[in-house]
Amino acid sequence: MLAPHFPFHSEESPLSYAACLAKLHTGDRLVSFLRDIEIRPDQMAVNEGSALCRLAEVAGIDVEDLRANAAVPVGKRTYNLRGELVTAEFLANPNTVFCPACLAEDDRKGMRRGRWEWSLSVVRTCPQHEIPLLRQAQAAWDDKLHELDRRVPERGVELQEMIEKAGHRSASPLQDYVLRRLDGIAGPDWLDAQTLDQATRATELLGVLVAYGPTQKLPELESNDWDHAGRIGFGFTSRGEKGIREALEAQFRKFDDASGTPGGRKIFGCFYNALAHSKSLK
After folding, report:
1. What per-residue confidence (pLDDT) applies to 274?
2. List of long-range contacts for 222-230, beta carbons under 8 Å, 24+ apart
3. What is d(CA 122, CA 90) in angstroms, rounded to the nearest whole number?
4. Could you write out the DSSP letters of every residue in 163-221?
5. pTM for this entry
6. Residue 62's pLDDT is what?
7. What is the DSSP letter of 62?
8. SS (H, E, C) 77-128
9. What is the pLDDT of residues 108-119, one digit of tens each?
């Protein structure tokens, strides 16, 4: 077991904890540290059960604390996150997501920590500092380990500039709902009756339709666009079938004066395509 003992923070991701151990015990990169303690980096990158167990063993902590903050693979592109089954698209990978204000505070304390919530694609705002989270795209194979010291080299004044440029907003109600549900807190009945993955996706897709119209192409949307769509969509899905029907009927009425007979694909656009896609099992 590693000494001195280094505590695990309840807000931290397993990958972040491993990076902290690497910095404390070897002063080296996470890849080298993982190999030293006989964990394959690719297994740690996806929070495989064997990697979490080995990390907990050498660090002297409860493996269930690590599992609580990790999406653990249980099948092809399927993960168990606090008892909820989610798909790979629910996660922010391969992007490294961070709050510059959180990192600035961490730097003053001497150790950066990656929050487990940052690994979720729906989490786009820091609820503590009320600024949009920033994203770094993967550029190298080991970027999937999300080492913040390397992925975000900015410090001090540079971080402050990032904070000022980020703007200000509160967390979306959809983000709040997801995090509360993962903490075991009940929400709106209709959303709670869906899988977490489907509840989130349905809300965002409905929001895209209402906010941007049926011709909007999903790949063209950026993180802030999805955040806005989630806010709009939650206003309908949180009211269940009544709210959803209201949104869909409003879209239908926009074509009352259209020539010919518009079909579902023309009226509902990406929302229809996502439901009708023959190769999707979601």
Report:
1. 84
2. 223/124, 223/132, 223/133, 223/135, 224/124, 224/132, 226/121, 226/124, 227/124, 227/125, 227/132, 227/169, 227/172, 227/175, 229/204, 229/205, 230/122, 230/172, 230/174, 230/175, 230/200, 230/203, 230/204
3. 7
4. HHHH---PPPHHHHHHHHHHTT----HHHHTS-HHHHHHHHHHHHHHHHH-TT--GGG-
5. 0.93
6. 96
7. -
8. CEEEECCEEEEHHHECCCCEEECHHHHHHHHHHCCCCCEHHHHECCCCEECC
9. 999 999 999 999
Q: What is the pLDDT of residue 66?
A: 97
Q: What is the pLDDT of residue 41?
A: 96
Stretches where the chain sits below pLDDT 50 are: none
C-alpha to C-alpha distance for 209 and 269, rounded to whole angstroms: 7
CB atoms within 10 A of CB 185: 10
User: 271 near 206, Cβ under 8 Å?
Assistant: yes
DSSP state of 46: T
Placement of tokens 């550029």 in the chain? 139
Helix axes 157-166, 100-109, angle to 10 degrees: 150
Please tell me the predicted confidence (pLDDT) of residue 282. 60
By the 10 Å C-beta count (0-12 exposed, 13-18 middle, 19+ buried), 179 is classed as middle
Tokens of 102: 């959180």
